[in-house]
Design a protein that fits this description.
alpha/beta, Rossmann fold, Transcription Regulator spoIIAA, OB fold (Dihydrolipoamide Acetyltransferase, E2P), five-stranded mixed beta barrel, 16 helices, 19 strands, globular, binds S-adenosyl-L-homocysteine, binds iron/sulfur cluster, binds FE3-S4 cluster
Length: about 475
């Protein structure tokens, strides 16, 4: 069996082969990423590999020689969107000889592969979540042999280091710290398409963060489906004698809390964020690390999903309403000025009016800075999909609207409390809607738009909040 290092070596050779093949041809690629920040980070690696091979990026698909779609399947609308997009590409493909590559989470689902075989057979490359690093090889085979490639495997998963990367942001660097998920929440497809939890080695993460710091990045976003179980599987394997830590990789850093503390020491980095922690794994050492580490933003994303103990049980979340609220209270006492954001699903199978009111109750009690709300979407292969008591669409939508009204009225109130305060803002760049203004984020992740000199980009400055809107503030540089 090849090691992961050997596999990457081979792909590096393919990168050189493709580079030779397309030399002087001025080929361009375009990429569309759907889904979460982990997928965005995967796409940054896809872009890194493509640019290493000599492809240049274009936003205009008419101008592209290669179109990559990195897909998500966490909710149904992503599927409709993807098939709409690739359905439209058939003509363009014939006209421009466009190579189409589709990869990511959705490709790990058999019914999707069947549908592609039947209706979209003109796709050139299909890759899954475990074969992203093989894009150079797949592309080489398409370019050289005009083959169609399906490269999807169903495994627990490996960890690949040392892929080239082309980052989207110049201020916030995303760093995936672990892959996969072991939780099997009953509504969720992610564990089936991303494999089991596996963590990157601390030294690889630390080196990546140091590299980012040396490139001038101020903010680090640590990513994983369940970041606070970082290294848990590895520690269990060591305890059971299944893994030997011969190189001493886990001697100093052996948990998420210790990783936070180590990253907090890295010079140049000024802000650390992470998504997503799981409430059931929010141990005291993590809370203490957040309190102690000056660079860790005191705004924590703490996914609730439902406020009802009944629903949480059906969802397999492994905490109750009370445990969640107690955790929030504990964090509020131990970490001054801590703020929260969350994810909530409305209308999961069997959700009663009472259950839903429990969700509203938690929202009122916690007072979130931001709530990402989702209508439950049945996913093939998950236990939730087989539950008999599905909620009618109409009721789901009505509950969603009620939740949205509550959340927005709360956020409007919270936003008012920012008026007149001075906030530390990391300046990201010109505002998308108004090139003359700058945009940045507060520690609590609120967007602030303000007038200022371009020299301020990528620094943390004091800004007074002078106007509040639902999704952004207007500010004045102090
Ligand atoms: N691992 C993270 C998030 C994973 S997916 C966590 O546990 O918090 C991001 C969000 O999508 C979830 O938090 C959940 O709110 C939502 N989600 C997942 N599956 C869904 C489904 N089948 N229907 C609707 N929303 C879903
Ligand atoms: Fe999905 Fe639950 Fe894993 Fe999050 S923790 S990815 S919601 S199974
Ligand atoms: Fe979607 Fe895959 Fe992320 S299913 S939410 S892109 S892990």
């Amino acid at each position: 069996m090849m090691t992961e290092i050997q596999e990457i070596e081979i792909q590096k050779q393919y990168m050189q082969k493709v580079a030779k093949l397309i030399e002087n041809k001025d080929l361009k690629y375009t990429i569309l990423t759907m889904g979460c920040q982990l997928n965005e980070n995967d796409s940054e690696k896809i872009c890194g590999m493509l640019e290493e091979m000599g492809y240049r990026k274009t936003e205009d698909i008419e101008d592209a020689n290669l179109a990559v779609f990195n897909t998500c399947c966490v909710r149904e609308n992503a599927e409709e969107r993807l098939f709409g997009k690739i359905g439209n590409l058939k003509n363009l493909k014939e006209k421009n000889n466009l190579i189409i590559a589709v990869g990511g989470c959705m490709m790990q689902e058999q019914h999707i592969l069947d549908k592609i075989k039947k209706s979209f057979s003109y796709i050139d490359i299909i890759f899954g979540t475990h074969t992203l690093h093989k894009l150079p090889e797949d592309l080489y085979k398409v370019l050289e042999d005009q083959k169609k490639i399906k490269d999807v495997i169903d495994i627990d998963g490996n960890v690949y280091e040392d892929l080239p990367i082309k980052r989207n942001s110049k201020t916030q660097g995303s760093v995936t710290i672990m892959y996969g998920c072991n939780n099997f929440c009953s509504y969720c497809i992610v564990p089936y398409v991303r494999g089991r939890e596996r963590s990157r080695k601390p030294k690889d993460i630390i080196n990546e963060v140091k590299e980012l710091a040396s490139q001038g990045y101020k903010e680090i976003m640590l990513l994983g489906q369940n970041v606070n179980s970082y290294l848990r599987s590895e520690m269990e394997a060591i305890q059971q004698g299944k893994l030997k830590d011969e190189a001493g990789d886990y001697k100093e850093i052996n948990s998420f809390a210790k990783l936070l503390r180590a990253i907090n020491q890295i010079e140049g980095i000024e802000r650390i964020r992470f998504v997503s922690p799981h409430p059931k794994d929010f141990t005291d050492d993590v809370i203490e690390a957040i309190a102690d580490c000056g660079k860790v933003c005191k705004c924590i994303h703490l996914p609730l999903q439902s406020g009802s103990t009944n629903m949480l049980k059906v969802m397999n979340r492994k905490y109750t309403k009370e445990q969640y609220l107690n955790l929030v209270e504990k964090m509020k006492t131990k970490i001054p000025n801590i703020k929260f954001t969350t994810d909530i699903i409305v209308g999961f199978a069997g959700e009663t009016e009472e259950d839903f009111e429990d969700t509203l109750d938690v929202v009122k009690k916690v007072g979130y800075e931001q709530v990402f709300m989702f209508i439950y979407s049945r996913r093939v292969g998950t236990p939730g999909d087989k539950m008999p008591n599905q909620i009618p669409e109409e009721i789901k939508h009505k509950r969603f609207d009620r939740l949205k009204d509550l959340v927005e009225s709360q956020i409007a109130k919270t936003n008012k409390s920012y008026l007149g305060t001075a906030q530390k803002v990391l300046v990201e760049g010109p505002s998308k809607n108004n090139e003359k203004m700058l945009t940045g984020r507060t520690e609590s992740n609120k967007v602030v738009v303000f007038e200022g000199d371009k020299d301020l980009i990528n620094s943390i400055i004091d800004v007074e909040i002078i106007e509040d809107h639902m999704w952004y503030f207007k500010g004045k540089v102090l």
